[in-house]
Design a protein that fits this description.
Layout: H1 14-31, E1 33-37, H2 38-57, H3 60-69, H4 73-86, E2 95-102, E3 109-115, H5 123-147, H6 156-186
Amino acid sequence: MPTPTKGARLGGSPAHEKLILSNLATSLFEHGAITTTAAKAKRLQPLAEQMITKAKRGDLNSRRQVMKRIKDKSVVHVLFTEIGERYADRPGGYTRITKLGPRKGDNAPMVKIELVEALADSPKAKKTAAKKAPAKKAAAAEEPKTEDKVEDEPKVEDVATEDVATEDVQDEKVQDVVAEDAKTEDK
């Protein structure tokens, strides 16, 4: 059993603290970084790291355990499909806390907690980069072929009918304005 934290709980009661941490974790996974107080960030960091580790596993039991804390299904989906895969080769340390300074109103120490970027030189990242490179070359090779085709220019008759239609609309607007002015002058 983990050692309980010392001192007062966030929010007063255990249930409120649990809700606060759940909402903070949801916001962190949804936005990638959040600004909060230092005490909340220090309590959130282990919870977020555990959830990312469960997302790396990707099995049904892990998803159900995460769903106990994070109620938003779309955030859980992002956690398991994107964030878990991003940190597949990283052994831990998925979050970073950066001090920002005191809050203006009550001088509480503020921090920014964010997800660190995945290792760029991981084997999985190299494989995806290698797959994308040939696709880009193929797309570049196909582009000059599409430029050779000449688009059909609009016919003179089509342009003339568009001009006539816009003139009719303008004439109707002018007539409406004149009619409204006449009504206001009569009153």
